[in-house]
Write a structure and sequence with these properties.
- This protein has one domain.
- It is mostly helical.
- It has 11 helices and no strands.
């Protein structure tokens, strides 16, 4: 019988109690990677002379094509280098969602172990992100159009405090709304990392197919589960909530996907996994 969302979240909390320290260390690792990437971008901007202000807020003071290319290269390197880590983290939470032995923090690097595994991680991540890219461009364009319109209104208004507050509130609502709709449109790809952990010998295409099928059959259920966590989103800007909410959301998703696979027939992909195991 399918568990309720309350039961899923309660089980996730119980599972986290046994691997809390490891989960916090993983969150710190992710935070460290983002901080390192930002620091490299900031230093690059200063070396190229596009950011000379005495602060750490990276706002280029002038357009520079070499800097734009550098940013693209740095972000691309960070993206490619951390793809196996992305799946390794989900593998960690998937294994710990069973409530059995706690996996060590080093297990998040397991997907770096072989070329075959790394290649599969790249194919799955790129395939899902490309599908998300279209929605990101669409909603990003809507936000940019809204900002452009707000700027026009500001230029032709009396530029009073009430106008400024109204425009600012409108921009925030529009941005949050675009993000929510983006999540709604791309939520079916969220279980991909856990599907790979559940079917390590399946092909990349089979994992994506199972991910889409599972999400389609339980779309409303997954949406409700994530909607319950949206209220925590503003807290992510603080370090402590990241250490609390990030592991909680990952474990909740792992428990939910495990429950979903127990309810949805995945015999076809499991058979292919068994055949692959036999060949090995």
């Amino acid at each position: 019988m399918m568990k309720t969302i309350r039961e899923i979240k309660g089980e996730a909390v119980e599972r986290l109690k046994s691997c809390w320290a490891e989960s916090v260390m993983i969150s710190l690792l992710e935070l460290g990677i983002y901080c390192l990437t930002y620091t490299v971008l900031l230093l690059t901007a200063r070396v190229m002379g596009v950011h000379t202000a005495n602060n750490v807020i990276l706002i280029p003071e002038k357009f520079s094509l070499p800097f734009v290319i550098s940013v693209i290269v740095i972000l691309a390197v960070q993206y490619i280098a951390t793809i196996p880590l992305y799946f390794g983290i989900r593998w960690f939470f998937w294994q710990n969602s069973t409530g059995k032995d706690v996996m060590p923090v080093s297990s998040v690097f397991a997907c770096y172990g072989s070329q075959e595994t790394r290649s599969k991680c790249f194919r799955i991540k790129l395939a899902t992100d490309v599908r998300k890219l279209g929605w990101a461009i669409l909603f990003g364009a809507l936000v940019c159009a809204e900002l452009f319109l707000a700027d026009i209104i500001w230029q032709y208004s009396a530029k009073g405090e009430d106008v400024r507050i109204g425009l600012l509130a409108g921009c925030i609502i529009m941005a949050v709304g675009a993000w929510v709709f983006y999540m709604i449109c791309t939520i079916k790809y969220i279980p991909a990392g856990y599907m790979m952990a559940a079917n390590p010998y399946a092909a990349a295409g089979e994992i994506i197919t199972l991910c889409k099928r599972t999400s389609k059959q339980r779309y409303v259920y997954i949406l409700k589960m994530y909607a319950g966590n949206i209220r925590h989103a503003p807290l992510i800007i603080f370090i402590f909530p990241i250490l609390v909410l990030r592991p909680y959301m990952l474990m909740t998703t792992a428990v939910s996907v495990r429950d979903s696979l127990g309810e949805i027939d995945g015999a076809d992909i499991n058979v292919s996994a068994e055949k692959d195991t036999d060949r090995k």
